[in-house]
Design brief:
The structure is a single chain. The protein is α/β, with parallel strands linked by helices. Helices cover 47% and strands 19% of the residues. The chain is globular. The mean pLDDT is 94. It binds nicotinamide-adenine-dinucleotide.
Length: 364
């Protein structure tokens, strides 16, 4: 078992990474939730069918009473109605401050569960059992929880840290490859923003990663969690450093939004966005051509998209970027790589450079 700590003073918590659920994990869950007398496991029907019995078996070893809730599947479930449904259940089942929520699933289940926990009785404990690559390396770490508003994504939420993140790599075996690939975009992102050695490892071990070799996966997931944990520990509320995690997201979010958060997966948008940001950086003489080439090549080898979807115009992407949370005083903020393993944050990218790069990436 590998262990990484998210260091946040009294709100610090461990991330445990295992090939399969173990007794040790159950013991650590018990320790992470002292005095807890009631666990509420939240998942959706797909995850429930595949992984709920394993999770319940793990939780039962803690000797705590367990109830389960199934919420609808997919991004459209990330709304206040579903959170309200969870709160109704908690009230009907007499949940108290000694109850804790358990998120079993991807980022959608994790974000909803975390937000429900953050507000119920002004905040109760929750733990994350992530089952997608994206949730293992990204959404379950760092305490951002929340839901979408009909007019904007992720704008209703809270910072609320879990007490523990328990990663069972075995759950990835049932994950569709497109979902795995989408999560892998965030893994590549972590290498580019913080760690050239990690990026090199990804270049070298790509085949082993996609064939789900356990030892390699453990190293990759632990490496990504370590990078995210370190960034979050230094800047929990995104007042500075944490913004580097948005590398690839300025263009990526715009593409995702133009696809109505359905036709283009998050990681696919981020992949294109990472290439766009690298190319912009190169045009501004902030990085060399080799950096752009290595990022593009790794994305291409992962079968992630390297060009904008054919139905989008550069103008529509530019316009959509203006609506983003990352825009300040009308200036679009970009995270730009200055090499592999380091980035800089800029809000002075000339609009014509952005337009030019987008045109060059297939947006006519
Ligand atoms: N809180 C954060 O810091 C943060 C960071 C990044 C993304 N997010 C959010 O995460 C969400 C995306 O998360 P995601 O990519 O995990 O998508 P997701 O939660 O929608 O899961 C993707 C699909 O895979 C299914 N699934 C999950 N685990 C499975 C498994 N082991 N086997 C088979 N099927 C499985 C799900 O039911 C779903 O259909 C978005 O809402 C995004 O906003 C949050």
């Amino acid at each position: 078992m590998k262990e990484i700590t998210v260091g946040l003073g009294e709100r610090s918590y461990p991330i445990l990474i295992c090939e399969t659920a173990t007794h040790e994990m159950a013991e650590r869950i018990r320790q992470a939730l002292p005095g807890c007398d009631h666990l509420i496991l939240i998942s959706n029907s797909t995850i429930g069918r595949l992984h709920a019995s394993g999770a319940i078996h793990l939780l039962e070893t803690t000797g705590t009473h367990i109830d389960t809730i199934e919420i609808p599947e997919g991004e459209t479930a990330k709304n206040t109605r579903v959170v309200n449904y969870v709160w109704d259940f908690l009230i009907e089942h007499n949940c108290t401050r000694q109850s804790a929520l358990v998120a079993l699933g991807g980022g959608v289940v994790g974000d909803i569960t975390g937000f429900a926990a953050a507000c119920y009785m002004r905040g109760i404990n929750f733990i994350q059992l992530p089952t997608t690559l994206l949730s293992m390396v990204d959404s379950s770490v760092g305490g951002k929880t929340g839901v979408n508003h009909p007019r904007a994504k992720n704008v209703i939420g809270a910072f609320w840290q879990p007490r523990l993140v328990c990663i069972n790599l075995g759950t990835l075996r049932t994950l569709p490859v497109e979902e795995f690939r989408s999560g892998f975009a965030e893994v590549i992102k972590h290498g580019v923003i913080r760690d050239s050695g990690y990026f090199e490892y990804l270049e070298e071990k790509l085949d082993a990663i996609f064939s789900l070799d356990t030892h390699t996966l453990e190293h990759v997931v632990a490496g990504s969690c370590q990078i995210k944990a370190e960034v979050v520990s230094k800047d929990e509320r995104e007042s500075g450093l944490r913004a580097i995690l948005n590398y690839g997201h300025t263009v990526g979010h715009a593409i995702e939004a133009l696809g109505d958060y359905g036709s283009i997966r998050h990681g696919e948008g981020v992949a294109v966005g990472m290439i766009a940001a690298a190319e912009i950086s190169h045009r501004m003489n902030l990085c060399d051509a080799r950096t752009v080439e290595r990022i593009t090549k790794l994305i291409e080898r992962s079968s992630l998209p390297t060009r904008l979807p054919g139905n989008l115009t550069a103008e529509s992407v530019l316009e959509r970027m203006q609506l983003d949370k990352k825009v300040r005083d009308g200036k679009v903020r970009f995270v730009l790589p200055t090499g592999i393993g380091e980035v800089t944050i800029r809000n002075d990218v000339p609009p014509e450079t952005i337009a030019d790069v987008l045109h060059g990436m297939g947006c006519e």
